[in-house]
Automatic annotation (TrEMBL):
It comes from Halodesulfurarchaeum formicicum. One of its GO terms (biological process) is proteolysis. It comes from the Archaea. Residues 10-131 form the MPN domain. This is MPN domain-containing protein. GO terms for molecular function: metal ion binding; metallopeptidase activity. InterPro entries: JAB_dom_prok, MPN. Keywords: Hydrolase, Metal-binding, Metalloprotease, Protease, Zinc. The keyword Protease applies.
Length: 173
Protein backbone atom coordinates (compact mmCIF):
# COMPACT_ATOMS: atom_id res chain seq x y z
CA UNK A 1 0.00 0.00 0.00
CA UNK A 2 1.35 3.40 -0.98
CA UNK A 3 1.30 6.12 1.63
CA UNK A 4 1.27 8.99 -0.84
CA UNK A 5 -0.88 9.31 -3.94
CA UNK A 6 0.26 10.86 -7.17
CA UNK A 7 -1.01 14.41 -7.37
CA UNK A 8 -1.52 14.22 -11.13
CA UNK A 9 -5.18 14.71 -11.89
CA UNK A 10 -6.14 12.47 -14.82
CA UNK A 11 -9.72 13.67 -15.22
CA UNK A 12 -13.28 13.41 -13.97
CA UNK A 13 -15.53 10.37 -14.18
CA UNK A 14 -18.36 10.87 -16.67
CA UNK A 15 -20.92 9.83 -14.04
CA UNK A 16 -19.56 12.49 -11.66
CA UNK A 17 -19.75 15.19 -14.33
CA UNK A 18 -23.31 14.14 -15.19
CA UNK A 19 -24.24 14.45 -11.50
CA UNK A 20 -22.64 17.90 -11.38
CA UNK A 21 -24.56 19.16 -14.42
CA UNK A 22 -27.84 17.81 -13.02
CA UNK A 23 -27.21 19.29 -9.56
CA UNK A 24 -26.44 22.71 -11.05
CA UNK A 25 -29.61 22.61 -13.14
CA UNK A 26 -31.72 21.48 -10.18
CA UNK A 27 -30.41 24.39 -8.07
CA UNK A 28 -31.13 27.00 -10.76
CA UNK A 29 -31.79 29.95 -10.47
CA UNK A 30 -29.52 29.78 -7.41
CA UNK A 31 -25.84 28.95 -7.52
CA UNK A 32 -24.69 25.42 -6.75
CA UNK A 33 -21.52 24.80 -4.72
CA UNK A 34 -19.60 21.63 -3.96
CA UNK A 35 -16.12 20.26 -3.43
CA UNK A 36 -14.44 17.79 -5.75
CA UNK A 37 -12.97 14.59 -4.35
CA UNK A 38 -10.68 12.20 -6.16
CA UNK A 39 -9.77 8.54 -5.93
CA UNK A 40 -6.51 6.86 -6.82
CA UNK A 41 -6.70 5.67 -10.44
CA UNK A 42 -5.45 2.20 -9.52
CA UNK A 43 -8.54 1.70 -7.31
CA UNK A 44 -10.67 2.40 -10.38
CA UNK A 45 -9.02 -0.20 -12.55
CA UNK A 46 -6.90 2.26 -14.54
CA UNK A 47 -3.37 1.28 -15.40
CA UNK A 48 -2.14 4.83 -14.85
CA UNK A 49 -0.70 6.74 -11.94
CA UNK A 50 -2.77 9.66 -10.71
CA UNK A 51 -6.20 10.60 -9.48
CA UNK A 52 -9.69 10.74 -10.94
CA UNK A 53 -12.45 13.01 -9.65
CA UNK A 54 -15.21 10.67 -8.49
CA UNK A 55 -17.31 12.62 -5.99
CA UNK A 56 -18.86 15.99 -5.30
CA UNK A 57 -19.18 16.79 -1.61
CA UNK A 58 -21.90 19.26 -0.64
CA UNK A 59 -21.34 20.92 2.72
CA UNK A 60 -24.32 21.15 5.10
CA UNK A 61 -25.46 24.71 5.61
CA UNK A 62 -24.33 25.94 2.20
CA UNK A 63 -26.32 29.05 1.38
CA UNK A 64 -27.00 30.05 -2.18
CA UNK A 65 -28.71 32.78 -4.14
CA UNK A 66 -28.84 33.70 -7.84
CA UNK A 67 -25.54 35.60 -7.48
CA UNK A 68 -23.51 33.65 -4.92
CA UNK A 69 -23.04 30.51 -2.87
CA UNK A 70 -21.30 30.50 0.48
CA UNK A 71 -20.02 27.62 2.51
CA UNK A 72 -19.52 27.58 6.24
CA UNK A 73 -15.80 26.87 6.14
CA UNK A 74 -15.83 25.27 9.59
CA UNK A 75 -18.14 22.58 8.16
CA UNK A 76 -15.69 21.61 5.39
CA UNK A 77 -13.86 18.42 6.34
CA UNK A 78 -10.10 18.25 6.22
CA UNK A 79 -10.26 15.72 3.43
CA UNK A 80 -7.16 14.29 1.79
CA UNK A 81 -9.29 13.39 -1.23
CA UNK A 82 -10.29 17.01 -1.89
CA UNK A 83 -8.89 18.32 -5.19
CA UNK A 84 -10.92 21.46 -5.86
CA UNK A 85 -14.37 22.95 -6.16
CA UNK A 86 -17.34 23.22 -8.45
CA UNK A 87 -19.99 25.89 -8.60
CA UNK A 88 -22.53 27.21 -11.05
CA UNK A 89 -23.09 30.58 -12.64
CA UNK A 90 -26.83 30.80 -13.31
CA UNK A 91 -26.17 33.76 -15.63
CA UNK A 92 -24.19 31.44 -17.94
CA UNK A 93 -20.90 33.35 -17.71
CA UNK A 94 -18.08 30.81 -17.71
CA UNK A 95 -15.36 33.04 -16.23
CA UNK A 96 -14.33 33.26 -12.58
CA UNK A 97 -15.35 36.40 -10.73
CA UNK A 98 -13.06 38.16 -8.25
CA UNK A 99 -14.96 36.39 -5.46
CA UNK A 100 -14.37 33.05 -7.21
CA UNK A 101 -10.65 33.72 -7.51
CA UNK A 102 -10.49 34.45 -3.79
CA UNK A 103 -11.80 30.93 -3.08
CA UNK A 104 -9.62 29.09 -5.63
CA UNK A 105 -6.69 28.69 -3.22
CA UNK A 106 -7.48 25.14 -2.14
CA UNK A 107 -7.27 22.25 -4.57
CA UNK A 108 -5.96 21.82 -8.08
CA UNK A 109 -9.01 22.52 -10.25
CA UNK A 110 -12.16 24.56 -10.07
CA UNK A 111 -15.12 23.90 -12.35
CA UNK A 112 -17.62 26.59 -13.27
CA UNK A 113 -20.87 25.37 -14.82
CA UNK A 114 -23.17 27.86 -16.54
CA UNK A 115 -26.81 27.80 -17.54
CA UNK A 116 -28.28 25.93 -19.38
CA UNK A 117 -26.00 23.26 -17.80
CA UNK A 118 -25.28 21.08 -20.82
CA UNK A 119 -22.08 19.28 -21.80
CA UNK A 120 -20.68 22.40 -23.43
CA UNK A 121 -21.56 24.67 -20.51
CA UNK A 122 -18.58 24.21 -18.19
CA UNK A 123 -14.96 25.25 -17.92
CA UNK A 124 -12.09 24.30 -15.65
CA UNK A 125 -9.65 26.69 -14.01
CA UNK A 126 -6.47 26.36 -11.97
CA UNK A 127 -5.85 28.14 -8.64
CA UNK A 128 -4.80 31.32 -10.43
CA UNK A 129 -7.97 31.46 -12.55
CA UNK A 130 -6.29 30.33 -15.76
CA UNK A 131 -8.43 28.09 -17.93
CA UNK A 132 -7.18 24.52 -18.13
CA UNK A 133 -8.58 21.19 -19.30
CA UNK A 134 -10.03 18.17 -17.57
CA UNK A 135 -10.63 14.94 -19.43
CA UNK A 136 -13.99 13.22 -18.95
CA UNK A 137 -13.23 9.55 -18.35
CA UNK A 138 -15.56 6.67 -19.12
CA UNK A 139 -14.89 4.53 -16.07
CA UNK A 140 -17.13 2.50 -13.83
CA UNK A 141 -17.29 3.92 -10.35
CA UNK A 142 -17.26 1.39 -7.52
CA UNK A 143 -20.42 1.13 -5.48
CA UNK A 144 -19.88 2.63 -2.08
CA UNK A 145 -21.55 0.91 0.80
CA UNK A 146 -22.09 3.54 3.45
CA UNK A 147 -23.91 0.99 5.58
CA UNK A 148 -21.46 -1.85 5.15
CA UNK A 149 -22.83 -4.02 7.96
CA UNK A 150 -25.81 -6.26 8.64
CA UNK A 151 -28.54 -6.11 11.28
CA UNK A 152 -27.12 -9.30 12.82
CA UNK A 153 -23.75 -7.56 13.24
CA UNK A 154 -25.44 -4.56 14.88
CA UNK A 155 -27.37 -6.86 17.23
CA UNK A 156 -24.21 -8.76 18.17
CA UNK A 157 -22.41 -5.52 18.99
CA UNK A 158 -25.35 -4.22 21.06
CA UNK A 159 -25.57 -7.54 22.90
CA UNK A 160 -21.83 -7.49 23.63
CA UNK A 161 -22.27 -4.01 25.15
CA UNK A 162 -25.26 -5.23 27.19
CA UNK A 163 -27.70 -2.97 25.35
CA UNK A 164 -29.71 -5.79 23.72
CA UNK A 165 -31.04 -8.84 25.47
CA UNK A 166 -31.73 -12.23 23.87
CA UNK A 167 -35.52 -11.61 23.69
CA UNK A 168 -34.99 -8.43 21.63
CA UNK A 169 -32.49 -10.26 19.44
CA UNK A 170 -34.93 -13.14 18.82
CA UNK A 171 -37.73 -10.68 17.93
CA UNK A 172 -35.57 -9.14 15.20
CA UNK A 173 -34.73 -12.41 13.47
Amino acid sequence: MRLFRSSELLGIARETMEFTLEACEATHPNEYMGFLRAEDASKLGLDRTGQVITDVLVIPGTESSPVSASVRSHMKPNDMRSVGSVHSHPNGVLQPSDADLATFGQGQVHIIVGAPYGWGDWKVFDNDGRQTTLEVLDIELPEEHFFDFTQAEIDAELAAEGRLDEADRDDRH
